[in-house]
């Protein structure tokens, strides 16, 4: 006896027409033609059933603050940082939590159930940390939230930056962050990487640094991060986020750098939407787009996970909490249009991101929590093309969000009366 059976599901690995049995909040069977009784049956009608989406890089403390106290006129990274500095003294715990909860509602509707957010620790009052710790507790029943102590204004550059980050970790923040390229000098940047990795090793915490988010090919803090990862035995527990300077580095240096990153088991976290929006702003033409070398990193066996980074905040006025929108853009800007490319891109917002966050029990496997998303698409390739409706989102076997399928009624002579947007119009499998 199952609590729930999802019938006729297509899985991300290509299996089609599979039944998924769920009991006690866990997946207890994955097989064809599951002959059993269930308290509830959902017919997936040969739609894609995926594990939930995972966002390994976000700024929850800034989300939905667009227009406060003013708009980012230039649309640049540096004006966004300055604008956040204007807004920060006015922040309250209540307002931060309210905006973040509203975003989390959007996230759930999109099947996004795991998020790592960077929390600004530059203001010694640490209102942002208090708010995000409160948020983490509030949303625990439906979203797993990891917090990164992020010295937005620089670990050394900000007044009391060192003490504030340590206090944030003492308050219960999960991950050590940094922003070495925003320190006053390259030497201070390298020094901050060394200090922060040492703190992480001493506390037994992971590391996730904004690293080389710049067009400057000489910004090479990822090299220091890889070296310090090995020095402190942090392999597999360290992420380099953004890594946009790799877009501008010469190929010979990158041929040395990527093996160093692989040796250190660095998780690479590009943010396609934000990286192509903010980078290359000093270029005329040809204009660099800024996203790091995704194909080459994947080919070297490096775990690549895509982040959303921002939604309607001082840095990015767009966004919807949809990780498929992130992946859809990555297909284009990384020029990864092959079938195998697209399947790898889908992994970058699911399995790879789960690995970057160290999630346990993630994925479609017997014994794992029944955290699932049913999409109005037939397979992962179509999901990337369509960014389809999330028909149902399940958390531990319970449906926590439902959306009606997108159907269009036509009144055209000799043509179908209805179009289902999730059906491949070619009539052929996408892979």
Please specify the SSE layout and strand pairing.
Layout: E1 2-10, E2 18-23, E3 26-31, E4 38-50, E5 53-58, H1 77-87, H2 93-109, E6 112-120, H3 127-139, E7 144-150, H4 161-171, E8 175-178, H5 186-203, E9 207-211, H6 221-231, E10 238-242, H7 251-263, E11 267-269, H8 272-278, H9 294-299, E12 303-304, H10 323-333, H11 339-347, H12 351-356, E13 372-375, H13 380-386, E14 390-395, E15 398-402, E16 407-409, E17 418-420
Parallel strand pairs: 1-4, 5-6, 6-7, 7-8, 8-9, 9-10, 10-11, 11-12
Antiparallel strand pairs: 1-2, 2-3, 4-13, 13-14, 14-15, 16-17
Helix pairs in contact: 2-3, 5-6, 6-7, 10-11
* Secondary structure tally, helices: 13
Question: At the third CATH level, what is the topology name of the largest domain?
Answer: TIM Barrel
Distance between the termini: 35 Å
CATH superfamily of the largest domain: Metal-dependent hydrolases
How large is the radius of gyration?
22 Å
CATH level 1 class label of the largest domain: Alpha Beta
**Domain count:** 2
Low-confidence stretches: none
Let me know the number of strands.
Answer: 17
In oligomeric terms, what are we looking at? single chain
Overall pLDDT, averaged? 97
What is the helical fraction, as a range of percent?
25-40%
Strand content: 15-25%
Largest sheet: 8 strands, parallel
Please name the CATH architecture of the largest domain.
Alpha-Beta Barrel
Give the ordered list of helices and strands: EEEEEHHEHEHEHEHEHEHHEHHHEHEEEE
Structural class: alpha/beta
Shape: globular
Strand order of the largest sheet: 5-6-7-8-9-10-11-12
Protein name: Cytosine deaminase
EC number: 3.5.4.1
GO molecular function: cytosine deaminase activity; isoguanine deaminase activity; metal ion binding
GO biological process, one term: cytosine catabolic process
């Amino acid at each position: 006896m199952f609590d729930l059976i999802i019938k006729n599901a297509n899985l991300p690995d290509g299996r089609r027409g599979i039944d998924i049995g769920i009991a006690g909040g866990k997946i207890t069977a994955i097989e064809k033609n599951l002959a059993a009784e269930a308290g509830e049956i959902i017919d997936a009608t040969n739609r894609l059933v995926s594990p939930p989406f995972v966002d390994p890089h976000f700024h929850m403390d800034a989300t939905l603050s667009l227009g406060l106290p003013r708009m980012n006129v230039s649309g640049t990274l540096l004006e966004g940082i300055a604008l956040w500095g204007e807004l920060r003294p006015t922040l309250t715990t209540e307002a931060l939590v309210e905006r973040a909860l509203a975003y989390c509602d959007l996230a759930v509707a999109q099947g996004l159930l795991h998020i790592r957010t960077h929390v600004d620790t530059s203001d010694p009052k640490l209102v942002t940390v208090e708010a995000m710790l409160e948020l983490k507790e509030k949303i625990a029943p439906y979203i797993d939230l990891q917090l990164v102590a992020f010295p937005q204004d620089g670990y050394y550059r900000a007044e009391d930056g060192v003490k504030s980050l340590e206090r944030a970790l003492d308050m219960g923040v999960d991950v050590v962050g940094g922003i070495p390229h925003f320190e006053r000098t390259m030497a201070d940047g390298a020094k901050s990487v060394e200090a922060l990795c040492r703190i992480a090793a001493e506390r037994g915490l992971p590391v996730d640094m904004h690293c080389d988010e710049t067009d400057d090919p000489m910004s090479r803090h990822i090299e220091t991060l890889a070296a310090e990862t090995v020095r402190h035995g942090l392999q597999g527990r360290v992420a380099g986020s953004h890594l946009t300077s790799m877009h501008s580095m010469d190929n010979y240096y990158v041929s040395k750098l990527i093996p160093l990153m692989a040796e250190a088991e660095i998780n690479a976290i590009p943010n396609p939407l934000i990286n192509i929006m903010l980078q290359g702003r000093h270029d005329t033409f040809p204009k660099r787009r800024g996203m790091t070398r995704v194909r080459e990193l994947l080919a070297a066996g490096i775990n690549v996970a895509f982040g959303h980074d921002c939604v309607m905040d001082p840095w990015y006025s767009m966004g919807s909490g949809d990780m498929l929108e992130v992946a859809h853009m990555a297909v284009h800007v990384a020029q990864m249009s092959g079938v195998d490319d697209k399947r790898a891109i889908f992994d970058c917002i699911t399995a790879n991101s789960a690995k970057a966050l160290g999630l346990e029990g993630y994925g479609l496997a017997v014994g794992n929590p029944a955290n699932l998303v049913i999409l109005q698409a037939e397979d992962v390739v179509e999901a990337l093309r369509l960014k389809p409706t999330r028909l149902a989102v399940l958390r531990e076997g319970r449906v926590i969000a439902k959306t009606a399928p997108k159907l269009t009624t036509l009144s055209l002579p000799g043509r179908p009366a209805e179009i289902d947007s999730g059906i491949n119009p070619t009539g052929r499998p996408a892979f």
